[in-house]
């Protein structure tokens, strides 16, 4: 372990815990330890200093530990986080879930009273920690770069296969935006989707993509590949009343049936149901376009609210799939999500099948469709035919 140049931050309002933790961290080889009794002071320090690991209590004065986690997310804190608390195991689990949802690098939790061994375990885990692939702290593109990219058609679509769990055959693809930047190379959506949404530019990208996707489905159809494509639609577009007509026109232009197009809408974007959004969703689904609820499980919405919306597919977020491999409780949650979606007549996609372990687990669940790096990473359209051939040989 190379902990001697790490900077650790302690957040706890108990002087005795701070004294104990400082000693334990120093014994473990960390030379820089900064302790704070309230979250505001800790955040000020974080704004001006680079910190490798934070040990945070949950029960704090003014700003509590839960709010502190939210603020760490807003500040794009790139280091590790350990929760230290005397709260019940259930409460700690739910806060852990929040930290993961906020895409923080959560190492784990320590229950009070603290032991030297528990802290040492966390430090070992932190030093071996493999960053999740959500590319924390990415560089966001500036508005002028986005406008230029749109004008110069630097955006492209990569396609990731969706596999039928029963037959192992490819049934469709998810289209994912990429930006071919002249100097930065291939840029991923975390660097531009939110910026496009905030600057009312996402519509330009999505309308271009719809044309590109339908043209691509038609071209695969002409080569004998019957595939559907799922496209991500931002919430801000769901109140565009001309969206359904524009899609219907494109479908007829490429002579494609409506069920070849799936629109993915994140769970969090449909929590606040507006009349305009319901009108758009209803018109799309009435004409046979499939609607899929994306990142299910991260939006904290209740199932009852989803029943009234015209979704025919549920994509369970990758964190539930991945955590289910190591955690019995998470496995039970995942199974009940799958069963619930099936009872509602929805097909279920399990995302984030990244390893053989994920694959083995997912194959035994009753999810209909599997997606993840273990099957294939997103690829340019031109590579798909070769990939399909290889996949069919391997699974024949
Ligand atoms: P998403 O809709 O949940 O898309 C799946 C993301 O998970 C993709 O990241 C994909 O590359 C990644 N992924 C797939 N398999 C695995 C796996 O096994 N392990 C892990 N760790 N990740 C996996 P990507 O392409 O970076 O996209 C990130 C997000 O950006 C998407 O998440 C979606 O919300 C948004 N996005 C991407 N393209 C578009 C777009 O054209 N329009 C809009 N509105 N949003 C988009
Ligand atoms: Ca998606
Ligand atoms: Ca997703």
Report helical residue fraction: 40-55%
SS content category: alpha/beta
CATH superfamily placement of the largest domain: EAL domain
Summarize model confidence as the mean pLDDT: 90
The tally of beta strands, per DSSP, is 15
N- to C-terminal distance: 46 Å
Briefly say what this structure is.
With 396 residues, this protein is of the alpha/beta class. 42% of the residues lie in helices and 21% in strands. The longest helix has 21 residues, at 202-222.
Q: What attributes does this structure have?
A:
396 residues, alpha/beta, Rossmann fold, TIM Barrel, 2 domains, eight-stranded mixed barrel, five-stranded parallel sheet, 15 helices, binds ligand C2E, binds calcium ion
Structure description:
With 396 residues, the protein is α/β, with parallel strands linked by helices. The protein has two domains: 7-127, 3-Layer(aba) Sandwich (Rossmann fold), CATH 3.40.50; 139-395, Alpha-Beta Barrel (TIM Barrel). It is built from 15 helices and 15 strands. β10, α10 (275-286) and β11 (290-296) form a beta-alpha-beta unit. The longest helix is centred in the middle third of the chain and has 21 residues, at 202-222. Residues 174, 232, 264, 294 line the site of one calcium ion (CA).
């Amino acid at each position: 372990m190379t902990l001697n140049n790490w900077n650790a931050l302690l957040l706890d309002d108990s002087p005795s815990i701070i004294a104990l933790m400082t000693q334990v961290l120093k014994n473990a080889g960390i030379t820089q330890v900064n302790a704070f009794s309230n979250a505001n002071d800790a955040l000020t320090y974080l704004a001006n200093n680079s910190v490798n690991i934070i040990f945070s209590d949950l029960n704090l004065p003014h700003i509590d530990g839960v709010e502190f986690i939210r603020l760490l997310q807003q500040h794009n804190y790139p280091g590790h986080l350990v929760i230290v608390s005397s709260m019940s195991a259930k409460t700690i689990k739910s806060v852990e879930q929040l930290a993961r949802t906020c895409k923080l690098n959560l190492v784990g939790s320590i229950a009070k009273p603290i032991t030297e061994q528990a802290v040492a375990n966390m430090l070992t885990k932190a030093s071996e920690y493999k960053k999740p692939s959500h590319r924390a702290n990415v560089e966001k593109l500036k508005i002028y770069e986005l406008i230029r990219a749109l004008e110069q058609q630097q955006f492209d679509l990569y396609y990731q296969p969706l596999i039928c769990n029963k037959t192992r055959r490819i049934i469709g693809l998810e289209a994912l935006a990429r930006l071919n930047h002249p100097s930065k190379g291939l840029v991923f959506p975390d660097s531009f989707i939110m910026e496009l949404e905030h600057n009312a530019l996402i519509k330009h990208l999505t309308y271009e993509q719809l044309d590109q996707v339908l043209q691509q489905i038609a071209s695969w159809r002409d080569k004998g590949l019957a595939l559907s494509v799922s496209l991500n639609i931002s919430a801000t577009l769901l109140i565009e009343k001309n969206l359904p007509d524009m899609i219907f026109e494109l479908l007829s232009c490429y002579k494609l049936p409506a069920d070849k197009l799936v629109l993915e809408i994140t769970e969090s974007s449909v929590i606040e149901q507006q009349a305009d959004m319901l009108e758009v969703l209803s018109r799309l689904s009435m004409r046979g376009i499939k609607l899929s609820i994306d990142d299910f499980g991260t939006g904290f919405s209740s199932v009852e609210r989803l029943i009234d919306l015209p979704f025919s597919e549920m994509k369970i977020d990758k964190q539930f799939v991945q955590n289910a491999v190591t955690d019995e409780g998470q496995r039970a949650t995942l199974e009940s999500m799958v069963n619930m979606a099936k009872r509602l007549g929805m097909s279920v996609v399990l995302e984030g099948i990244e390893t053989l372990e994920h694959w083995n687990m997912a194959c035994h669940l009753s999810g209909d469709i599997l997606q993840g790096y273990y099957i294939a990473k997103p690829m340019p359209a031109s590579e798909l035919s070769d990939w399909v051939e290889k996949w069919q040989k391997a699974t024949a």
